[in-house]
Write a structure and sequence with these properties.
By secondary structure, this protein is α/β, with parallel strands linked by helices. The chain has two domains: about 1-140, Response regulator (Rossmann fold, 3-Layer(aba) Sandwich); about 145-260, Beta Barrel (OB fold (Dihydrolipoamide Acetyltransferase, E2P)), CATH 2.40.50.1020. It is about 35% helix and about 30% strand. A five-stranded parallel beta sheet has the order 2-1-3-6-7. It has a five-stranded antiparallel beta sheet with strand order 12-11-10-14-13, with helices on one face. The protein is elongated, with a radius of gyration of 24 Å. The two termini are about 40 Å apart.
Length: about 260
């Protein structure tokens, strides 16, 4: 089986090559590439390998850029120094990871996973795009608090104490879990880009809600949803038919689709 290695560190390549030669003679290394640019060119001009070992951080960029530009039909095993918090993202079909320096037993487990996928015919990497989005989102820093003026005081408001934001004539109001209302000189569009989409969802033009504020969800007419927030709102909060699916995915913990 044909293996492509994407790695810009010679010691790391030599170690992986030696481990493959020692215990996995059925795998043939067909090429070694050391950059994003070279990898994109190679994949566009050659038949797909059976398996790719791909470092994440390359000399000319991050290897995810390769898979944004070229559709890859084989499994990928990423070699990475990412911490465990990041590595939870790799638990997907057709994708695995190895921590550097690569250990013999870890490599064996990854190759066994690849062989099982190949035997079952399930070698799709359709989830690579979702993986890239998730890692990029995890790397982004979201606001954890807002400094607001209350009377003559400046007070920090932590986002976990915010139930939802309500649009108010080009700016917005913070509604705390306690029910207190505080004016904020930011629009909902601006806030949506500042807040973690795992916790906040733009339910409609008027409301940006913290998941902890969602009390109940009701089926409404024509595919819409009615959401009861806490503290209780004065008006009915409706989610359009177009947004209903992504909202339900967000509630169900599918944060990537919840960003829509």
């Amino acid at each position: 089986m044909r293996v492509l290695i994407i790695e810009d560190e010679a010691p790391a390549y030599r170690r992986l090559s030696n481990l493959l030669a020692e215990g996995h003679s059925e795998l043939e290394i067909i090429d070694v590439l050391d950059s994003v640019t070279a990898s994109i060119k190679w994949l566009r001009n050659h038949n797909s390998p059976d398996l790719i070992f791909s470092d994440i951080q390359l000399a000319d960029g991050v290897s995810f850029e390769i898979y944004k530009q070229v559709e890859v039909s084989c499994p990928i095993i990423f070699t990475t120094a990412y911490n465990e918090f990041m590595l939870e993202a790799f638990q997907t079909n057709g994708i695995d990871y190895l921590l550097k320096p690569i250990e013999k037993e870890s490599l064996k487990r990854s190759i066994e996973k690849f062989m099982l996928l190949k035997e079952s015919g399930s070698t799709s990497t359709a989830s690579v795009g979702d993986l890239i989005q998730l890692l990029e989102r995890k790397e982004k820093r979201y606001k954890t608090r807002f400094l607001v003026k209350i009377g003559q005081k400046l007070v920090p408001i932590h986002v976990e104490n915010i139930a939802y934001f309500k649009s108010s004539m080009g700016s917005s109001d913070i509604i705390l879990s306690s029910g207190k209302n505080i004016a904020l000189d930011l629009s909902l569009d601006e806030l949506q880009n500042l807040l973690d989409p795992e916790h906040f969802f733009r339910v409609n033009r008027q409301y940006l809600a913290n998941i902890s504020s969602v009390d109940s969800i009701h089926i409404y007419s024509k595919g819409k949803l009615k959401v009861d927030l806490k503290p209780e709102t004065k008006e009915m909060v409706l989610i359009s038919r177009e947004k209903a699916r992504s909202f339900k995915s967000w509630i169900d913990g599918e944060t990537l689709r919840g960003e829509e």
